[in-house]
Design brief:
globular, twelve-stranded mixed β-sheet, 475 residues, 14 helices, single chain, alpha/beta
Amino acid sequence: MVEDDDEEESSHDVVGEQVVVVHNNQDDRRSPRNSSANESRLEALRRQLRLEDHRRGLQPSSTASSKQPPKQQPKPQQRIPQSKLPPIPSMESIRKESDGQDLTKEQIQQRWIQQLETLPDPIANPEILQDTFQRQHTYLRISLSEKCNLRCLYCMPEDGVPLQPPDQLLSNDEILQLVDWFVTIGGITKLRFTGGEPLLRKDLAKLIDTISRRHPQLEEIGLTTNGVTLSKHLPDLVNAGVTNINISLDSLQPALFSKLTRRPESYFDRVWDSIEQATSTYQHQLKTKINCVVMPDNQNELSEFAMLTHSHPNLDIRFIEYMPFNDNSWDTNQFISYQNMQDILNSSSSPYQLHRLSDGPNDTTKWWSYRSSSSENNNNKTGRIGFITSMTSHFCSTCNRLRITADGQLKVCLFGSTEISLRDILRSSPSGERLLPKVVHAAVQRKHYKLGGHQDMNDISNHSSENRPMTLIGG
């Protein structure tokens, strides 16, 4: 899987000093939430009341009013600089501290919970998911499986990765519990399921349907998939409430696809069938994107990928800079930069050129259109061309994403090695969920400004062994 995101559908063509609005009129089952100041303040009040109910062990309040006597709010606490925040306790740190004491697993867990209890409460509910750089996190990505039916070169070793026993992965009930908390208390508005390959998870459509019905306020429910088995699942997924599909595809040539994925050429046809189905049969229900990681092997296919936005006007194409992760053989000789990609697409031999579009407030993607300046058909609707430039032009200053791995670890940054086990907190006791505000807020407060605390792509590469392989993070 690869780093991705979903963005606003309305974009702007930037021409000199003028901005021309270009609307991509794709139907969507969900309308974006009204973002007026009054509604934002009302929603913040509602979430604050729900947090107070959560702390008292009551059912979440359904309205902004309450019959309970008003509680005096604590005075805001002064923020501690991120660099001075101590590490969040972990079970491993407790084991090291108690070395030689011969503690049982239950005793270690008890000490861990006791230390987590000492974490400060969030200052106010709207700030639970706000970090020290004032970034409010509204987008949650949950990995549903460590398994994958491909072996992409940039994602995992050829022999795969060690898999944990099923009982170490989040159950459906635990996923629902976390989604309920992050949406109702944390204010998450966008949800995406990743992997591994999420379609390898049993009862996926049923899980999404439950979430969609419980939380109709979610603006988007997305899925990132390799597309190999997507075609047979699409009807159920759309009916369950999926609004966005991102499909990973790194070559339009079956032979090269096979080389990059280490799987039979026949898999390409299955992926392409899924793309065709998503952009035709479900063009009014789904927003569909192709994610392509650009490497020397496939850089000569960029124009062919870009032209898909003309033949498939409901499809967006995103080119992604190759990122270093544990065991993915990254090196600078394999790296094709954002500028390199632009140069290829703007080649003088091509009648088509890139034209800049505007980006949304939390976009991970720099958006362009690909059209001929002399074409009479420039007014025809086309898809967009996007570039995810994590390595040469990062977008960390507006990051609003959090990740939960398949085994329940909260990661506040794709490139960071720090994790906190929400799974172990939920399983620590029947009331383990009461610790979520403290722990999640503490983790978010420790989020670095950029790249998980690294300086650049070479620094990330030098420390990649400290992080997980991409497939175990969940993009």
